[in-house]
Amino acid sequence: MDCRCKCCGRRFARRPQNPDQKYCHRKACQNERRRRWRRQKLTCDPNYRANVTDSQKRWSQNHADYWRDYRARHPQYVEANRSRQKARDRLRADLAAVTRTGAVLAKSDACTPESDSITVYYELLPAQPADLAKRYASRRIFQLIPVGYNDLRTDSQSCKDTTRGTLAEKSIIPGPCPGPSP
Q1: In the chain, N or C: fewer CB atoms in 10 Å?
Q2: What is the DSSP string of 131-147?
Q3: pTM for the predicted model, two decimal places
């Protein structure tokens, strides 16, 4: 009757009323169980998804002033949202400019036969052992990295991967990612 919790991995004794129990009694594990069930239900059950959508729509109609009142009570939320929106707008404008020029955006898992014409080569190297996200070095070739990409990393101090690139004229020294672009 002893088994491991799918959330926290700790051993627990199943309740006799539920012989198929997969999560322990801890509140965080039960919340995770409910979250996974809800995500699966929203994905697979169109009636459930429609009921949730209708319920949210009715709530927002009955509480039309909720967000206006929330923003009035939380000015720090308003300021943080403005700065994040500026970064999103900058990135959207940069991506729109790239799309207008007909350039192809970088995709790490696609190497085409035309890759011989690329002038920039980046090598992804594992980070320090404390931050290690990948346990192997990987080489990828990119055609273009949009300006403003780093603006999405507002909470992060450094990248999980360090990049090293070489251009025909100069080399880029390895180090942490640069800050947001102007």
Answers
A1: C
A2: T---SS-EEE--S---T
A3: 0.44
